[in-house]
Structures are given as C-alpha cells and as structure tokens.
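wait is this the right file?? whatever heres the structure
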C-alpha cells in the first residue's frame, strides 16, 4: 500500500514527539503492507530545511522496514499563494495536500482549483469527512467534477471514529467522491495511529478487493507519478444491495 499523508517527522508541527515513536509508526505501517509513505508536516516557512532533515533522519529506519519515504507539506487552504515554492507529494508529482481548516466549505474553493491548475498544480483535499457535514456533499460533488481530489482518513472508516465522521466518510464512498485513503497518523497508539491495514480490510469486506486496491494502492501510486486517479464508481455495500433489491418496484419482481 501507499500512504500519502502520515505525520512522521519528529517534533515538527504535531507529529510524534520522539524518534522511537516515529520508528514504531514505521514498523506498524510496514506490518500492514505499506511500502511507500509521504512524511508530512503542516506548512510553516521556517520548517523548509527542518522537514528535509527530519525525513532524512528517518530514512535508515524506513529502509529497514522496506518503506520508501517522501517529504511534503500539508497546506492550510488560506496559506496557498503564487509566491510560495510549494512542496508536492513527490518530486514527480504536482499534487498538493490541502486542508480546508474550517467547518464550512469556502466559497473560493473553485477559484483555488482554477488558480492551481493555471500554475500546473493539482489539489488533493485531505480529510473532508472530518470537517464537513452531509449538507456539503453537493458542493464536494462540484469540486470533484472540476478536478479536485479527496483523501479520507483510514480511521474514519472504523468504529472508533465519531458517528458523524463515519457517516460522512461512507456517504462520500457511496457517491464515488473518495480518490485515496491515507492514515493521517500522528502517533503510534489511539485514534491517530497508522491503521491502513484495518481500513483496507474494512473496504474489502464492505465493498470489494478491487475498490480497496484502488483506494489504498493504485490511486495513491498514480498521484505520486502525477497521473490522475482512476474513477471509482459509486458502490453499494452487500446490505445496501439487498435493501435495494427488496425495495425495487413491484413490476421488476
């Protein structure tokens, strides 16, 4: 698997507080089958050099675990500016990790997409299921149609996520709005741990192996290579399929 959003750099923004914690996170990722990780810090101008140094310090441990590390920033929507030298998710890629950092979808989101495209960047919006309610789905549909990509957190699919977050994540899956699943891990324990393996198993059980592969392996790798994600058609869980069959019009029975 490929994890495009993992806060591994030690003592940068809200990542792990010590080196052993970051190493345990790498070991957990490797044990779940992750082989490529984008190590992320929240953007701040003074962190430019420190990010590279922090990721370089982790590379020997990552190599021991069989993991390739990239370094990237996660940008606050309001921080994006044409005069910044932006850090994408890999040297080949033009995809940026962007957090809306607000609980109402900004009216300028479409303008941002257009501005990024003019500068030959692409937006990968992170964890919208944690920020927005179901009422935002039509606007997210529009952003997706215009070329924005969406990443949901692995833990958002699991029982420990709040009911509202789980509901939003699953609604986005049903509508075909999710392009990538990533860990957004910050620690080695609790709800901010790397849980890619658990999310993959949930997706395979509730949907299909193909859908799990697309969300956790295929599309993340494509974005690293600056290729657009493959479309993931809206899908129903087995229970939803049964419910749909039972509720079909009498003329079809």
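ok assuming it is, sequence goes like this
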């Amino acid at each position: 698997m490929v994890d495009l959003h993992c806060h591994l750099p030690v003592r940068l923004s809200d990542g792990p507080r010590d080196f052993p914690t970051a190493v345990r996170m790498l070991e957990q990722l490797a044990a779940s089958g992750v082989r490529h990780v984008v190590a992320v810090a929240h953007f701040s101008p003074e962190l430019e050099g420190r990010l590279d140094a922090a990721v370089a310090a982790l590379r020997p441990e990552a190599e021991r675990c069989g993991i390739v590390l990239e370094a990237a920033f996660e940008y606050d929507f309001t921080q994006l500016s044409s005069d910044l030298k932006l850090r994408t998710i890999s040297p080949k890629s033009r995809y940026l990790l962007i957090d809306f950092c607000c609980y109402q979808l900004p009216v300028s989101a479409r303008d941002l997409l257009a501005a990024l495209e003019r500068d030959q960047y692409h937006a990968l919006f992170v964890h919208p299921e944690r920020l927005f309610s179901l009422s935002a789905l039509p606007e997210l549909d529009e952003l997706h149609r215009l070329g924005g990509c969406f990443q949901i957190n692995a833990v958002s699919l699991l029982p420990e996520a709040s009911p509202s977050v789980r509901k939003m994540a699953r609604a986005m899956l049903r509508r075909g709005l999710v392009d990538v699943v990533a860990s957004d891990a910050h620690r080695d324990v609790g709800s901010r741990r790397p849980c890619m393996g658990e999310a993959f198993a949930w997706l395979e059980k509730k949907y299909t192996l193909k859908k799990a592969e697309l969300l956790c392996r295929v599309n993340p790798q494509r974005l690293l290579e600056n290729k657009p994600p493959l479309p993931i058609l809206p899908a129903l869980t087995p229970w939803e399929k049964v419910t749909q069959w039972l509720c079909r019009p009498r003329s079809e029975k």
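The first strand starts at residue 2 and ends at 6. so i think its the right one actually
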